[in-house]
Amino acid sequence: MTQPLGDGGIVVAAARSDRAVAIDIAREFMDALAHRDLQRAASFLAPDFVMTISGGHRYTRLEDFVSFSATRYASVRKQVTTVEACEASNGVAVYLHGDMQGSWPDGTAFEARFCDRFLLREAKLVELQTWSDAAEHARRNG
After folding, report:
1. Domains of the chain and CATH, by start
2. Predicted TM-score (pTM) of this structure
3. Around 94, how many Cα atoms within 13 Å sit in the side-chain half-sphere?
4. What is the pLDDT at residue 139?
5. For FRET with 79, which of 28, 35, 126, 133 sits at 20 to 30 Å CA-CA?
């Protein structure tokens, strides 16, 4: 007689890979940041978290990043088109690629490409590097 899975003392479980967990964390962090839920976003960060954005600007506090962003953009929204994750020498790297739309402080609309690279260790964000060609569009249109 065949028994259903789980009967007879068999434990059935499906483990998620470190890469899958890292992708979920990166997406949840970005969602929290997009909604300016800084408390939730900060819950994903390691104590030594560092964010470096285009132009070499570095932040260790999300509040400082948000304040700087308010001077750079009137609004911005990212649409992720590609997600990749791989083992890195010091953790798991997650790459989010896509398009961003928004407006400059003067109200002029823009579109640009972006790439965000997250480094995670022990399910916490240690580093975020982000690049976009928004500055290139600003130079061309400004």
Report:
1. 16-141 (3.10.450.50)
2. 0.84
3. 26
4. 60
5. 126
